[in-house]
Amino acid sequence: MSKSIVNACASDGIHIANAFGKNGEVWNCFGESRAVRVGDVAHMYHGDMDKGNSKHFVGEILSAYEKFSDVTIEEFPEVKKAWPSDSNHGGPRRGRAIFCRVSWKEVAMTPGEEYRLKWPGKNGFKVQGTILRIR
Question: What pTM does this model have?
């Protein structure tokens, strides 16, 4: 996920992920999403503290994950701008993406949080990209 997509998800109050392959195969993140519960705490980030461009968002999960095909992209205008369906990355394609609603807040990144978020496997968390779903 790019910096712009992370910022867009934070602005629109969601977390989104492609969870199904082109032929309908179920990816691991779909199974993992079923363990996420309302009230769980999630972290999302991009950038590097040493470069002065880090952003860290913490949020409470407000809804279970659902298929993106159950809503229209117009409900998420910032995601639509940052991740258009005709982009090289395919955008949040209908029938392939899932999302949940999150009340994101930007918070200062600490060195300890940066280490935990960038190398979750070294800290007892599953390696899963720019989001650490459950604290």
Answer: 0.82
Those residues whose C-beta lies under 8 Å from the C-beta of residue 91, and which sit 6 or more positions away, are 73, 83, 84, 85
When pLDDT is averaged across residues 20-38 and rounded to a whole number, the result is 87
How does pLDDT run across 108-123, given as a tens digit for each residue?
Answer: 988 888 888 888 777 7
Q: Among 46, 41, 55, 19, which Cα is nearest to 102's?
A: 41
% of the chain residues with pLDDT over 90: 27
What 3 state SS string does the chain have?
CCHHHHHHHHHHCEEEEECECCCCCECHHHHHHCCCCCCCEEEEEECCHHHCCCEEEEEEECCCCEEHHHCCHHHCHHHHHHCCCCCCCCCCCCCCEEEEEEEEEEECCCHHHHHHHHCHHHHCCCCCCCEECCC
